[in-house]
Amino acid sequence: MFHLLWLVPAIPFAGAALLMIFGPRMAHRTAAWIGCCSIGISAVISMLIAWQFLHQPPAGGSYTQHLWTWMSVANFHLGISFYLDALSLIFMLVVTFVSFFIHVYSSEYMRGDEGFSRFFAYMNLFVASMLVLLLGSNLLLLYLGWEGVGVCSYLLIGFWYTDPKNGLAAQKAFITTRVGDTAMAVGLYLLFRQLGTLNIQSLMQAAQHQWPHGSVYATAAGLLLLGGACGKSAQLPLQTWLPDAMAGPTPTSALIHAATMVTAGVYLIARTHVLYSLAPTAQLAVAVVGAATLIAAGFAALVQDDIKRILAYSTVSQIGYMFLGLGVGAWTAAIFHFMTHAFFKALLFLASGMVITSMHHEQNIFKMGGLRKELPLAYWAFVIGGCSLAGLPLVTAGFYSKGLILWGALSSPVGSATLWFFGVIGVLMTSLYTFRLIFITFHGPCHHKPSQKTGWLMGVPVIVLMTLSVVGGFVELPSYLGNHPWFTNFLQSALPATAEGHAPLTELGAEGIVVLAFFLGLGAAWFFFLQRRELSESMAGSGLGRALHRWWYTDWGMDWLYDRLFVRPVGWFSRTNKKDAVDLIYTGTAAVTRSGWSSLRLTETGRVRWYATALVVGTVIFVLIVALL
Amino acid sequence: MEAIFYIAAIVAVLATVLTVTRLNPVHALLYLTVSLLAVAVVFYTLGAPFMAALEVVIYAGAIMVLFVFVVMLLNLGRHTVEIERSWLSPGAFVGPAILAAILVGEVSYLLARSGTLTPPVAEVSPHQVALSLYGPYLLGVELASFLLLGALVGAYHVGSRRAQGRTTVGSRSDRTGLASGGDLVRTGADRPSGAA
Amino acid sequence: MFALGLIGLLVRRNLLFILMAIEVMLNASGLAFVSAGARWGQADGQVMFLFILTVAAAEVAVGLALLLRLYHRFHSLDVDAASEMRG
Q: Between C13, C79, C87, which is nearest A604 by CB?
């Protein structure tokens, strides 16, 4: 089965190529079939591979498929080869499955859109690039996939390109992630320069042998890769692009900007976890970035009024949790949270897509309300997804994964009570903004009657993801609940276990505080946004409240800050340097050439005998020179 | 033998001078043929009988026939002689003659510097030429064959009526140029011919 | 003789005469090669003459074809009339 590994990225890629070439002349139905089937086949193959991986694990817990040599220069050998271990297997499974369901959903959601086949082409290309990113056995191949998903993200955010706003959002996403990508590229150069290879496994071994604990190089490389991860995963300070990225079609937001692509940074850090173990500073930076992001994004989510922007900020916040998990060395917890997050966030986005379709593309939650009766499926999807997101104890997946991360933050030797405390505040915030969203959208008075009903193509994926959002958490039961860490055990071959330090609280006690925070948030949301709506409005209306609202609404004024710090100085510089001092060399060359041309063209009379005379005079002079020498 | 050489050489030079100065193209062609035949005699006296034969057959035969055909095709009559006369003023010879004189002077200086000019004439047989031609110069022979093929195709293409029709019909400016062709000749005649 | 051909080339405005002058020049250089070959008793000179012969044949074929086209176009053999390629 393992030898079929190359098919997993190849089939979506073939689908994308097919759709790009023949798409414009293709019936929408055919395009949808090609788009969904290619991902479906890929998902089935991943499942077969996973089956074999479970029953006949490959030697050493990993399998490498070398396809061909990419480049070979001096000591620098790179192959197009895929590396499969427990980590990439989990990511591959989640990506192919979630993508498949989102593709099925899109085949109805995008129905009648002009760019139907174009949409599926981009989505397929995205899945293919994402799989290359996950399976690449060397960092350059990973980087290829990394840039590939970036391009697809750009194309899909600006999918409705006739509106310049969408184009601007796409550019913003592309340019902001580029900042991180540059850092990552520098990190790759550093790693190659110091360790002489880019193959991830040999790189990790070499790092372990050559670099001492806390080495400068490891720290630098770790921080640079963290920069790349921050850009792609929308972490502080590069998170500003993700909320704007919601300009794309909703399935895109579900797939790329919630479930898969934005977690590429998590994958990168988990993949290179050896580096971070060697560099405590870099690892601490990961944890701090995660904690800061989850709080900041939580507050920003609290005051948004666009349903998709709320979900976008919650994505940023949840990825902050994953970073926190990675930063404290709870590797498996972070990956676990990635998996559950992919399920429930995709679910939430798909459900919000149902709401938006029914409301004639209205996204402001304050113009909705009372949709509980009208859209029962969307309502229940939101309830289950929201509970999972906020971490309703015992029955939802989000509870287990987030609990594991928080326990890691408290108990691991790298973690601390401060980080844990931030995490708990984050839980409170998450619960608050999630239920605010649900209460405002689905409860209360009804403003608009929804019109369209959604069909089964949109319903089935939502139901499947609903199920997964609940049962997805049962693969890892904490010690106080029977202690069945199947997920951690499975990942053991790829990632080290979370180290246990001494914690000021028992696991059960810590979990109790988390649960308390959840219910506190739920209660506050219920009180402020359902029972006494006017109270929250008066709070927001007061002077301080308005200022805070504005500050958080603009994501802590980050866009404003960047505008002042980077955009305007660069704009000013380019305006003053309109003539371009550097270009003087080139324009000067052109001017010299042009003057030479205008003087030489006088000799070009078009008269043959004139040319002949010139030739003869030249010959005479030449022979004269020969004669005199 | 030596007397024949000198006589032939003088004939060749004289015939060439006449070729260059004649106004009637047919006369010029005849003088050119005479010049070529004289050169053939020079070749014979220099001990290259095969080359002499080739000179007669190809130069004086084939190439001259081509010229004669073209002159026939153009149907050059008495008025061309008049045009030639107007084009060919004695003053026009001054510049080229000076340049040519400098060149001749330079070459003779170089020859004089290089040493004795009276050579022992050694005959080179066609056998030797053939051995050399198909030995070290084989590549040259191949290239020459390519050149001839290219010339054949090129001449056919350039000269074919179809290509002519395409360009003249293709653009409007060509037709106006055609209509005012006579004017071009006249204005051409008014130009100072010593411009070269 | 080469110099005479050169003079002819420069003096004449009739393309036909110019082609003839070129023939004269080629022939003159061929003569120089053959006489040099005879002077040192080498076959190379005559081989070169053969090549020059080839070149002359090719040149005259293309040249005369061009001459015919020029005549059909301008109704004149004046090379100065064909100065449309002025830069």
A: C87
